[in-house]
Design brief:
The chain has about 240 residues and is an all-alpha fold. It has one domain. Helix 3 runs antiparallel to helix 7, helix 3 packs parallel to helix 8 and helix 6 packs antiparallel against helix 8. The longest helix is centred in the last third of the chain and has 61 residues. The chain is rod-shaped and about 90 Å long.
Length: about 240
Amino acid sequence: MVATLNVIAVFLLQEAPTFDLRSMWGSMTLLVKVVVFILFILSVYSFGVMIDRALMYSAARKQSRVFVQQVAGALKEGKLDEAIAIAERNKKSHIAKVVATGLSEFQSASQQVSDSDVIDAAKRGLERSVAIVHAEMKRGLSALATIGSTAPFVGLFGTVVGILNAFKGIAANKATGLSAVAGGISEALVTTAFGLLVAVPAVWAYNYFTNKVEAFDVEMDNSSMELINYFILRRGAKK
């Protein structure tokens, strides 16, 4: 009993290790520092993508509202050139990009081919434009998905290295006290936490922005169908 109390007393009297970030960084091995640096780069890149996509989607939404209001009057009066000019002034609008392509295809095909071919040419142009705008809207989201799925494993690699360093500390010091394993354990915990800190926002942002892109796709498809109906009615009225 006395011997056990002596062991506990010795353990408690050991110098308590510090766990501030600076001291932990200084005690990390080179390999763990590389892991933390990689996670930091992934974090910076993912937040850069988030900011870029958020600004792009916000601008697309605002300009689309303005464009829809302005272009409706021009199309109602049959002023296709004016409608194209309005689309050119709202280049960040996903709907404006699609409508501008459809109107341009319709105008150019109207002078060269028959009525049925004009509508087909406009449809193909709209489909191409929707595909291109969809790719632009989705740019960077695959990187968020990759970061969200791989960052925890990068952190887990650092965790494994930290645990190994903890066991090395035990073997080197011939002791099992807290000071012998503090460095390795701190490395393991920091890399685990950092990996999750990088991954969770990336996954959340990926799901959020994917839903945004799907909503934009629906809006572009609806605009394409409405524009095709407009072309059909316009060609029918000229007969």
